Structure formats: C-alpha cells, structure tokens
Amino acid sequence: MCGIAGLAGADAVRHERTVGAMGASQAHRGPDGTMHAASADGQAVLAMNTLLIVDPQAMPGPYLDRESGVLLAFNGEIYNYRAQAAAWGIPLGERDTDAHLILRAWAKIGPSCLDGLDGMFALAVYDPRIGKLFLARDRLGEKPIYWRLDGGRLAFASEVTTLTGYGTAPLVLRPEVTAIETPVGVDTPFQGIQLLAPATLLAFDITTGSLDQHSYWRLQDRQPFTGTYSEALAKFSVLLAEQVPLRAPACDFALLLSGGLDSSVLAYLLRPPVCVTVRYPGQERLDESVIAARIASDIGAELVVVEPDHVDFTRVLPHMMSALDYPMGNASTFSEYMAYRKIADLGLRVVVGGLGPDEFLMGYVRHSLV
Q: Whole-model pTM?
C-alpha cells in the first residue's frame, strides 16, 4: 500500500508546503519514504508515500520523465508490466518497476496506455505539454483516490481525511450518506469531496479549470453461458488456476484464512508461508480455527491464531476508526484490523484475503431476490 496526494492549477507550486503536509498525513501508507515534487512549470505538485515490496532498494516516488516533463505519483501494482513494455516497445532495465512503465508509456502514448494495464492502481499524472492533471483508477476500483475542487485548484489524495484539512470552503457532512452506514458510489460523507469511480479517467485543465471524466473500460455484454453446471465449474476452475498465481506476491506474505470457501481456495492455489485466522474464546459456534488449522497443515503453512477480547476492542477503537478513514457498517472490521496488526508484528508487508467472491458470484440471499 502506497499513497498519493497533490494539487494542480493556479500556481500550485506556491502551495508546495501544503502538499508536503498532505503527504505527511499519509506517511503510514509509505514507510519507505514520503516525498513530493513540483512540475517544471509550477502548475502541479505531487506527493507519494512509498511502500517497497519487490525491490527494497528501489527509489521512492514521485517519478519524473525528464524528456517530456511528465510527473507521476502511483499507488498499486501492474501484473503484466514486463510483457506490456515489450508490446509497446518501451525499454525497461532490470531494476525498473511498473511505475517506470506507466511513466514512459504515458509520455509516449498518453492516457490510452490505461487500456493495456492489468492490475490494481490509483495514479496521478501531470503532463505539462498539454497543461492537464490526470487521475485514474483501476477497472474494479481496488485502490482509492479522492478529489475536490477549491480555489481554482484540484486536490487529490488516497485518504478522504487528507482532503478534509485542505481548502477554504467549509466542510459539510452529508447526512444522506452517513445514514446508510457505508457510503456507496462516488459519494463520501463530506460535501465537495468525491471518490473517483472505478475504471475512470479524470482530466483537469489547469488553464481553463474545466474538468472531464469518462470511463476508459466497461464490462462487456456477452451471450449467456449455455453449458452445464459441470462445464461452468470446470471453466471457472481453469480461470482461477490461471489468474490467481499471476497475482501471487513476489515476497513472503500472509493469507487471511477463515476456513471458508474463498480463502481456502486461495490457500491451495497460493501456498502461503503463513496463514492468519481470528477466533473469539467462548464463541465456539463461530470458531473456524479448527478448519483453518487443518488447511494450513495440509499446505505446510504456519497458522497464527489471533484471539482478541473486549479489552483489545476498547484499546484499538480510536486507531481502527482512524485507519478506516470514515465509518463503515461492517462488524468484521475489528477482526480484520487485529489480524493486520499481527501480520505487521510478524514483519510481513503483504497480505492476501478472499474478499469479493460473495459479491461477484452473487452469494447473498438478496442477490437471488433481485
């Protein structure tokens, strides 16, 4: 997890100290360095919090293409960056990363490079050749990026609370958003601050102040599958076996293993060195640690069992709420937070979880009702 933040427009360089403070407020997202850089024309300042995973000796961002002046702040991972660099004819050195591919591709072919990226990301690019700041988010919206307009400038950040402290306009809570427990779509609890939608490219013209958004990718309409259940199961199994290993971390990592179907499938496909599960003493009916232990033993992984109690809840609640950025109506948040703390204590920087299949496989009763 890295972080990005910045300003563009209306002599943004005069507010370089503000951008530095925005980056510093997200320093927990990038333990390997928080830096900011101004564009040569002074119209954009980008900050980046860097978390190094693949190459611990790599240089932290932001990244500058000296020939074009294109400036990039990047949060995420591109799984196919080596193959895509070859397809685009962009040379990459042995130590170059996915961020270097995006930087050089943007300088060469512009925003159309988004079409070739397979990964999870939120990025900001300032292109002085056309005087525009671009914000983009991955196809499914795994990585967040928030933005707001104020005083002729566009401000953006990885965390909504970073933007609550920026700008002259008074901050107004939106009761219609907070009333439904978890905000949906692009709305946030704060009026004037929006979440960039998945698969969306935002372009801000620093000269005119105009702003344009459009989707650069849409899920294609396809003919309904007409095969049997067994054929569908076989095809889905092949897709899982192909795609999950492509996303395997290139370092030691932990898996959140509940003993449920989703995380168990990941355990057998990824074979993580460490599995972490959460159990609550006295809640045997909800205890999945026995199944988790069986799976961990089967794949030769170490199982770490976290057992939080009410004292832990009271103690970590302020920290947990701060980490959430804004309230979310999900009781599992506490369990996940305690698991993440334990994984950090183990010295691991990457964790894999089985979140998502319940939604895209329509696993809830309400899906069948629709």
A: 0.91
